[in-house]
Amino acid sequence: MEQGWIKIYTSNDFFKSEIVRQVLIDHEMEAILMDKQGFPYRIGEVEVYIHRDNFNKAIELIVKNEL
Predict the structure, then answer these.
(1) In the chain, where the domains are located
(2) Global pTM?
(3) Which residue of 7, 28, 42, 64 is 20 to 30 Å from 55, comparing CA positions?
């Protein structure tokens, strides 16, 4: 992964992580998912990463929207 990205959210639920990613994108922040769940049982974590510059704004959105 390129430098400047920071993990902002982690969940065992893929869809929760996708919702967080989409909210960040809707607020004009570039966000990516890193799916670390194993196949076929989907055990593990799904992480959301953003650019370091957007960290404070992203945390505020996550807390405000109770994601």
Answers:
(1) 5-64
(2) 0.86
(3) 42
